[in-house]
Specification:
Layout: E1 5-9, H1 14-25, E2 31-34, H2 42-47, E3 56-59, E4 62-65, H3 67-77, H4 89-115, H5 118-139, H6 152-157, H7 164-171, H8 175-178, H9 180-189, H10 193-196, H11 202-216
Parallel strand pairs: 1-2
Antiparallel strand pairs: 1-3, 3-4
């Protein structure tokens, strides 16, 4: 049976970017459908009736939801092409742990940086830098989180690189000066076409956040 793949996504979503990177890294063709999250399509509501969120990967008419689950699904179905998760159980569990760390810490703390002011923003910025330093320590001297090749944790984390500029401008701090090894890792990931083709211009992400703040009534 032919593989029909449709990805419901939106350009600025770091979660959707993960799926696009995974598919492109494996050389898998897919149809991309941009969703307007202020006016969600009937297809999205049908394919994700519980959360009504992107990304959703529709594989031969069947929906797979939640970015981490989708990336693992893609890796399992096309396991012979550029595997992302380690083959051994323990390193695989470790990769899932660090991907879960990214999920639980990076997005929400980053959001606090651009939605708050004063002491609350300062606290969020310090917390954010702390999480990045934890990731930098885990990376160590390795080129990628999983070792010598782009893997699951890299695919999970690298989309936030396109949001770093927005965080820095909003919180008035420098990620490069605080976490130089992590920034070197990000630039290394950007050498992969799957990543560079997926991540949007950081300045456009910042412009999107400014518009979002206006819509949300955040000055």
């Amino acid at each position: 049976m032919a593989n029909e793949l449709i990805l419901l996504d939106t350009w600025v979503s770091p979660f959707g970017m993960r799926v696009r990177i995974a598919l492109r890294e494996k050389g898998i063709k897919f149809e991309y459908k941009e969703e307007d999250l202020t006016n969600k399509s009937d297809l999205l509501l049908k394919m994700n009736p519980i959360h009504k969120k992107i990304p959703v990967l529709i594989h031969n008419g069947k929906p797979v939801r939640e970015s981490g689950i989708i990336v693992q699904y893609v890796d399992e179905v096309w396991h012979d092409k550029a595997p992302l998760l380690p083959s051994e159980p323990y390193p695989r569990a470790q990769a899932r742990f660090w991907a879960d760390f990214v999920d639980k810490k990076i997005y929400d703390t980053g959001r606090k940086i651009w939605t708050t002011k004063g002491d609350e923003q300062k606290s969020a910025t310090e917390e954010f830098i702390g999480y990045l330093k934890t990731l930098e320590a885990e990376l160590g001297a390795k080129p990628y989180f999983g070792g010598e090749k782009l893997g699951y944790v890299d695919v999970t984390m690298i989309p936030f690189y396109s949001w770093f500029h927005a965080y820095e401008v909003s919180g008035n701090f420098s990620i490069e000066s605080n976490c130089p090894k992590l920034m070197a890792w990000a630039k290394r990931c950007m050498q992969h076409e799957s990543v560079s083709k997926t991540l949007p211009d950081p300045k456009k992400v910042y412009e999107f956040i400014l518009q979002l703040k206006k819509r949300l009534g955040i000055e």
